[in-house]
């Protein structure tokens, strides 16, 4: 069976980064659950901090650098995406948004996406619902129900309702979407013209 491909987009600005740490924990949880179901997964981690200049130049020139183009292709061709951003001023970071701005609008159509974020305080957790989820809905991605937010105090939590529990639940939801999903390149059903769809609703004479 062809391995599934998972693109992990992380927008942490420091090194080491709590955003990357959360991305790694989510990736490990998804990989482990897929392995339990007998599915292999190839993971590609995309560190946006390393592409900041390339992303800015793309806006000016209209063309991606070879390095940026490779990562855009990795996201486009992946079977699923994990997207993790730090929260700045109650929303995703500018670097995170800029990367998805230069991605083709149709690249995430129908693609399972797990969204997550980090921040210094729990009061920013709703940014996942009012900022990230609408953005990926606009891009026509299939966003898993559980979004994972990690504030500074969450990292020491081990109970079922804490960070570890949310990671496991979100990973399970992404795994469920990927289970039985063929690798990229599957055929898309032909779309009938609107007039034919309307005609099919007419009563038979």
From TrEMBL:
Keyword terms, alphabetized: Flavoprotein, FMN, Oxidoreductase
Name any one GO molecular function: oxidoreductase activity
The residue ranges of the NADPH-dependent FMN reductase-like domain are: 6-155
Q: Which InterPro entries match?
A: CE1759_FMN_reduct, Flavoprotein-like_sf, FMN_Rdtase-like_dom, NAD(P)H-dep_FMN_reductase
Task: Determine the domain of life of the protein's source.
Answer: Bacteria
Family matches, as Pfam families: FMN_red
What is the protein's given name?
Answer: FMN reductase
């Amino acid at each position: 069976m062809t391995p599934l491909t998972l693109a992990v987009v992380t927008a942490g600005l420091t090194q080491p980064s709590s955003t990357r740490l959360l991305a790694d924990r989510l990736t490990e949880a998804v990989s482990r659950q897929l392995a339990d179901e007998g599915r292999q997964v190839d993971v590609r981690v995309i560190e946006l901090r390393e592409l900041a200049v390339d992303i800015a130049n793309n806006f000016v020139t209209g063309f991606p650098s070879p390095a940026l183009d490779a990562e855009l292709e990795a996201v486009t061709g992946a079977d699923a995406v994990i997207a993790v951003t730090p929260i700045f001023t109650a929303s995703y970071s500018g670097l995170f948004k800029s990367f998805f701005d230069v991605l083709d609008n149709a690249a995430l159509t129908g693609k399972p996406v797990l969204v997550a974020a980090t921040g210094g305080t729990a009061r920013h957790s709703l940014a996942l619902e009012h900022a990230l989820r609408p953005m990926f809905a606009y891009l026509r991605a299939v966003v898993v129900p559980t979004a994972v937010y990690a504030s500074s105090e969450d990292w020491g939590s081990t109970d079922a309702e804490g960070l570890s529990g949310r990671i496991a639940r979100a990973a399970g939801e992404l795994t469920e979407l990927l289970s039985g999903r063929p690798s990229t390149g599957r055929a898309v059903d032909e779309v009938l013209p609107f007039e034919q769809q309307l005609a099919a609703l007419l009563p038979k004479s």
